[in-house]
Amino acid sequence: MATVLMCRRLPRLSRVAAFTTTAERGSGKSKKEKRDKPGAAKTGTESGVTIQLLKPQDYRVLYNPAAYAKGRAGSQQHVDRDSSQALGDAFTSPGTTQTLPTASSQALAPARNARPKPKFSRLLDQTILATLCKEEAEKEKGEMHDSKEDPRMFQKGRPEYRSLSCDSTEPAQTLPAEEGDSILQSVAGGEASPGILRDYFLKLSRLPAERRAALPSDPRFGALCHRAVTAIRLFSTPDLIQLLKACVPLAVPASHPLLNACEAEFCRRAWDMGLEQLLLVADCWRCLDRSVPSYLGILFSYANLHWKELTLPQFVQLLYIIGEGRRSPADLAQKVESTILKHLDAFTLEELGTICLGLFKSLSGISAHVMRRIADRVSLQMEDMSTYALVNVLKMLRYTRMDHLPLMRELGKVIPARIPATNIQGIMHITLTYSSLHFFDEDVLAAVAASLPSKVSYCRSKDAAKFLWSFGCLDYEPPNEEEFYSSLIKQLHVKLHEFRRFPEHLLTALLGLAFVKRFPEELIDFALREEFVEKTRGSKYELNKDLFTLGKSVEIECPTYQGSQLPPQLCQEFTEMVSSFAEREIYIRPEIVEATSLLESMLGGPEYVKNHMILPHTRSCDLEVRLATDGHPIPFNFKDPVAAKMKDMGVSLTDDLMSQLIQGRAHSQSPTEVGNEGRIHRHDRGDAAGPMLVDGATPQSEPKAGCWQPGEVRLALQVSNRNHFCYSSKRLLGLHCLKRRQLRLLGYEVLEIPFWEWFPLLKRTRSEKLSYLHYKVFCPALLSRAA
Fold first, then answer.
1. What CA–CA distance (Å, rounded) separates 743 from 90?
2. pTM for the complete prediction?
3. Ranges for the RAP domain (predicted)?
4. Which residues contact 703 (CB under 8 A, 6 or more apart)?
């Protein structure tokens, strides 16, 4: 077999200089300082050697144990093999290469004159390689999420589930293949009763797996199925259920005529069946991967009428079926909640996980009270809960926006040690929980970052995107940041073809990278190409704001970038779209209105202050003030439509409004808050790239650095709120770090008016508020720096 060695250039990666914010950064600050020290390790920037094996058609190499000699676990068999879908000249075709560290090439000594190894040595090598293969196979099995079987683990917890579920495991006693042939031969021997046909299917379902796999293409099996279809109405209900159960190990295709006939017959008989039978049949449909919306509709209606008869296992099985069917019957919502509370202490921990997963998959709403009760119990028994069940609870926790501090604190103690043994999708959901709830826990994030590089080949495009988004959203760069980010960026290249179907995942990933000042230019060039922008227009998600943020961020932070850019008319369209939202929702916020009014009074009039978005793509407003170096304010705002509107608008700072501003709302949200959070929280379900929190915009051109008048100081005052920071901390989220960094790059002095200082002042006297703002604007240190 020929071996070709070639060098591959790593993707270009722009890194901009680090800028700190005046807001506190928490425990991650030391990590940033380490990053910028000269001589720090840059493991992700080493050049590599690519080994490309030229192999005959259809020849597959399942394992290459030599690749793991250095402890690397980069199995490439998980890479999608579709080189025809490469979407750019800069990207290599996935699935055909393996990249090794440069140091590894030293071990590839020429074998031309090597002496043959002794027999014992060869046997030892073979044993070692076989062991490595076995270990890799076990690791692969652990990483592979079985979307059909994993959610069914709860059924092993109670014997009652045996009558409610279909056992899809291998039969204890297999039938000899010869007996199977005898059954198929007898099909041509005349009529057979429904009982005999049932027995035929049950016996065939016990054949060895390789023999069962050949049955669908066997004409004799087709004839048997045809007989069953013809006699379908003659089967008793128990016999028909047994026939359907036999179809599961027989792997009858979901669209098979036999299953069509069975579904129609079960729908006809459903109202004459018992709830146990109905749930068992629904479970069989799930095992057969057949969508049966009509049958499920009947099941849900039947359950609604017989709700008081539901046992605890029947209720959990019903919630499982609801989740797998991705349907949320609205008329059951209240009954589901009351039943959860009724049995809350009796559920096993696995059953609680199943209930949460069913609600999550079906997008069923659940009250904060019920979710809090579930979280209360989980936080007390978390160590006894499987990681899979725990992750399902976390999915529902973030879906309901539940800020349950005891659970999150306990999670921070329990989960770091479990991360190495958790599969990649589980780790992704854990990480996404922290970012979507804006909860920063360095121990958890560091554990994720340490485990991820060795697992990265198992990442789907969605997983890689969510990891990058989560770390960027929380503005955290781990101790192994170069290895962490370089491995994920390489995986984005490998999965590039998937972005044809899921453009939102690429934007999610690139925004997460932009938050932490990383700009992989080849991927950005691809994302800003006209054809990709068109694909985002066809997405079910609104991606315009994400494109806008990415495109403008590259303009500001990557001056040497020469790739694709967004057209000016598209940027103007996006700006106007964000501006429209700002005028409805942002500029009228009482804390911003009050600060604007007081600054106008302090500085001499509305022409000295402008409430607008200096950088529309960052989606939050600024109060801009301009000063001469001697401290005198400079008038500049002579045509501000927002200021004109504010003069006709009154906002009363009532006691109720003030308590909301100062204390926040733990269990409810205002319509404005709900509107804002809706624009970030679809990230939380793992469905899309999605825009972040939007604070508003004005249609204007972004300023260019160096356009200042001589002796002019431009201030950008940031009136922040809780949504700009991590939960219960002073650590800015990634988007708001990006904004402040870019304002400084453009020459602005960024002044913080943080909510923990400003909101309490809103109830104080006018003179106290003016004194506070005067100190912020006319800070001597600021003016001396400008001078």
1. 32
2. 0.75
3. 715-775
4. 614, 746, 747
